[in-house]
Design a protein that fits this description.
The complex is a heterodimer of chains A (about 40) and B (about 475). With about 40 residues, chain A is mostly helical. Chain A has one domain (about 1-40). Chain A has one helix at about 5-35. Chain A starts with a helix and ends with a helix. In chain A, about 20% of the residues are buried. By secondary structure, chain B is mainly alpha-helical. Chain B has a single domain, classed as Up-down Bundle (Amino acid/polyamine transporter I). Chain B is about 75% helix and about 0% strand. Chain B has helices spanning about 10-20, 25-35, 40-70, 70-80, 85-115, 120-125, 125-135, 135-155, 155-185, 190-195, 205-220, 225-230, 240-270, 275-280, 280-295, 300-335, 340-360, 360-390, 390-400, 410-435, 450-475. In chain B, helix 5 (about 85-115) packs across helix 8 (about 135-155). The termini of chain B are close together. Classes of the chains: A mainly alpha (about 40), B mainly alpha (about 475).
Chain lengths: ~40, ~475
């Protein structure tokens, strides 16, 4: 596999999966906070 | 309308909406389109349009669904007054027409799942199975089965949808991850990764790459179809819009990437010589002819083939449920009870979908006409928002006190300017392409995949909706219910 392909894979997958996991974690934190307030 | 029919939790809403967004298009269309349009270059354009089309429209749909708490016709009346009912009617008609033939696709997935589970595909070629099954009464039976399963879920309303999504969507994620891991660990899998991720930066100047990336986003995420509006009706009263919208967009595209890796690594590891031919074989060709052949050649192939068709069936069924709920909800808003509305929508689906199940030309025609029609749906959403005030929606609904992710003015510009522009350019491009595919018959209304058939069927639908506009508005109208819930 060429270096360019590896870097493209790392950047695209990192951005999409990373953002998804980050957002899911943030939503989970919001829900936990709401639950603890109840 | 009874109050109190809501998703039980935020995760219920998110999983149901992800189930709507993740469909067969993620598994059978994305890998093929990405690989044949410049790989890494296409992916860059695909990410750009995730942010310039899908996510802004998902935010809009969640926002207006939460604000007006009605199906798509009611939402358009809320946005633009009774004169806008026909725009909502178009969105509903487009999604319902897709539901009719999408059920046929879900039936194909179930048939191949049975072929894998029973071991039939171990001693029978996939081509033989396809030739003896597609466009026969057997395809009507599987279409009816798929529709019946969706009816069984929608019958119980939002609670039924939530319960099923909570099981099917996490399972689908796990299945796709297992299949992707198996695919990348096959000897020679790196050729598939190279095919998917190698960029050709010169192609960034090619307009068709950008248009294909926009099309993939429009068809793949379900943004602008009216389906998110339908689920947003059942959002809890105090619920965020923007963070949920980003999660759906990125979650959907995460599955697409996994599916791309899974499909292309499997193809290039098992049959590298035929890679380009397989990628060019079309959706049905790739999924129902090539994938079973490839799985049959790998160790424990029948097991992984079963997982593949199970994932595909789950993806198809959760999207089918959303499409059926949209049609049902519009009929409920017209005054029917849920059960009557559901049976009417399902009856129409069974009858008209059977015609597509028996005739592949009609299937392709309907896929073509209403697939392009979705661009018009996206445009109508932007027009509705413009009439109501895009920035007003942003301030009053999206950035409300429950907002967990502040949305700036960039969103107003995208919905007010970019989305209408993208929709118009895309529609003209798709219709223009038919001149190249068929220079002689592109205008002919009876040719299955021509500009003529699209314009003729759209014209009939739009005239009918304009005639029915007053009736639609009168039956659907009434004050919006900000407390939410459904009948």
């Amino acid at each position: 596999m060429s270096t360019t392909a590896i870097w493209t894979m790392v950047v695209i997958c990192g951005f999409i999966w990373g953002t998804f996991l980050l957002l899911a974690w943030r939503a989970w934190r919001w829900e936990s906070r709401k639950d603890s307030r109840r | 309308m009874s109050r109190g029919e809501h998703f039980g939790s935020r995760w219920g809403l998110l999983l149901a909406t992800l189930g709507m967004a993740v469909g067969t298009g993620n598994i059978w269309r994305f890998p093929r389109v990405a690989a044949s349009n410049g790989g890494g270059t296409f992916l860059v354009a695909w990410v750009v349009f995730l942010l310039l089309w899908s996510v802004p429209l998902i935010i809009l749909e969640f926002g207006v669904g939460k604000r007006f708490r009605k199906g798509v016709v009611g939402v358009f009346i809320g946005l633009g007054g009774s004169g806008f009912a026909w725009l909502g009617g178009w969105v509903a008609l487009c999604a319902t027409a897709i539901m009719f033939y999408y059920s046929v696709v879900a039936g194909w997935c179930l048939r191949y799942l049975w072929g894998s589970v029973s071991g039939e595909l171990a001693h029978r070629s996939s081509r033989d199975l396809w030739d003896s099954y597609a466009a026969t009464p057997a395809a009507v039976v599987t279409h009816a089965l798929a529709l019946g399963l969706a009816v069984a879920v929608v019958w119980f309303g939002v609670r039924g949808i939530e319960r099923v999504a909570k099981v099917l969507i996490p399972t689908l994620f796990v299945l796709v991850v297992i299949l992707a891991i198996r695919a990348v660990t096959l000897p020679g899998a790196e050729r598939g990764l190279e095919f998917l991720f190698t960029p050709d930066w010169g192609k960034l100047k090619d307009a068709s790459i950008w248009l294909e990336a926009l099309t993939q986003n429009a068809w793949d995420t379900g943004a602008g179809w009216g389906l998110i509006v339908t689920y947003a009706i059942y959002m809890r009263v105090r619920e965020d819009v923007s963070l949920n919208a980003f999660l759906i967009g990125f979650g959907n595209n995460s599955v697409s990437l996994l599916a791309g890796i899974m499909v292309l690594c499997t193809i290039f590891a098992i049959n590298p010589g035929a890679g380009s031919e397989i990628v060019g074989a079309g959706n049905e060709g790739l999924t129902f002819l090539w994938m079973p052949e490839l799985f049959a050649q790998m160790p424990a192939g029948m097991f992984f083939m079963t997982l593949f068709f199970l994932a595909l069936s789950f993806a198809a069924l959760t999207s089918q449920v959303a499409l059926l709920e949209l049609a049902t909800r519009v009929l409920i808003d017209l005054g029917l009870t849920r059960k009557k509305a559901l049976l009417l929508a399902a009856g129409g689906g069974l009858t008209l979908g059977s015609l597509s199940a028996l005739n592949m030309s009609l299937f392709k025609n309907q896929d073509w006409v209403w697939g392009v029609g979705l661009m018009l749906s996206g445009l109508f959403f932007a027009l509705g928002a413009l009439k109501y005030g895009v920035d007003r929606i942003r301030r009053e609904v999206i950035n409300s006190e429950d907002c967990e992710l502040y949305i700036g003015r960039w969103w107003t510009v995208i919905i007010g300017v970019l989305v209408p522009l993208e929709a118009v350019v895309l529609m003209i491009w798709w219709l223009w392409q038919t001149r190249e595919w068929d220079p002689e018959g592109w205008w002919h209304p009876l040719k299955p995949e021509s500009a003529g058939t699209v314009l003729a069927q759209w014209l009939v639908a739009l005239v009918a909706l304009l005639v029915l506009n007053r009736w639609l508005a009168r039956r659907t109208g009434g004050a919006a219910n900000p407390e939410g819930g459904g009948a």
